Amino acid sequence: MNSKIIANGILRALGILAAIALVLFFLYKIQSVIVYIAVAAVISLIGRPIVLFLRRKLKFNNTLAVIVTMILFVGILLSLIGMFIPLIADQGKNLALLDFQQLERNVDDLYQQITTYFEFNNIDVEQSIKDSNLLSKLDFSLIPNFFNGLVSGLGSFSIGLFSVLFISFFFLKDSQLFENGMMIFVPNGNEMRSRRSWNKIKDLLSRYFVGLIFQILILFVIYTIVLLIFGIDNALVIAFLCALLNLVPYVGPLVSGFLMLLLSMSSNLGESFSAVILPKTTYVMIGFIIAQLVDNFFSQPFIFSKSVKSHPLEIFLVIIIAGILFGIVGMIVAVPAYTAIKVILKEFLSEYKIVSKLTKGL
Length: 362
Fold this sequence. Notes:
It is built from 15 helices and no strands. It has helices spanning about 5-30, 30-55, 60-95, 100-120, 125-130, 135, 140-150, 155-175, 175-185, 190-230, 235-245, 250-265, 275-305, 310-350, 355-360. The longest helix has about 40 residues, at about 190-230. The protein is globular.
């Protein structure tokens, strides 16, 4: 091997590395566009059964079915915004007139009631809380800053929302658009199997995301009923936030439980801790646990077995591994990514025993 061949090999390797670096840099710069496309793809998968229903059952043409579906999505979005905007407006008005010293005194009063209650029951927690110096670290002036940041982000959110809706419309209108784009990267001779894999993935993920919508809806209804029964303020908003957090497997329910506990207690500030706050919060948390039991033993097994055709233990291990490797984002995308990988393996590597075992139900 002469020096010229070695030099050409080195130059080719450097060229490949430079091209990879440029592609990664380009993807980094357009990461917001990639997120828009990903969200639009999810929306199109959720809307696909609706479009098919309108076309097959009601005999709508494709364009009209897509328009009706998008109007339905926009209506749902406006309903959610309509639910949150009055709350934000009221909170903004309250914050403008809020006496933060009085708020701090109310929190301190709640703290004194809690410690007095536990001391009465021979549970000494006051010293540990004092050692942590927790109350002195609370900065109540951060609350208006948080809402100011929230308002400043509405501009970029509006641009992103328009982009997602625009892309979703064309994904629904031309269902082959994304598929044809992906086929560019498929080697010759594999187009047919790739198209079969893609159609199977679309079918499974459509059912999976629709199942998630029903899962959130079931939790939302149960949370709302529990919160309304015990007179918790802003019950609809709290129920929706806690149900939405359930999209994050295993971690989401813990966060939503803490959020519901905190908001249930704070909605009764100024009341007696032992007579009002503690009983109400206890009943609310019992309702939260019942909702989680319904979700864990009914909703999730049904979604995993009927939509992505995977055993719950299999899904559990996949989510845990994805969480260790990629964090919260990995836990969220673990099930769709694993489903897509299983379909591709079944189509291209079904002759291997381990693949045939894993993909037996597909």
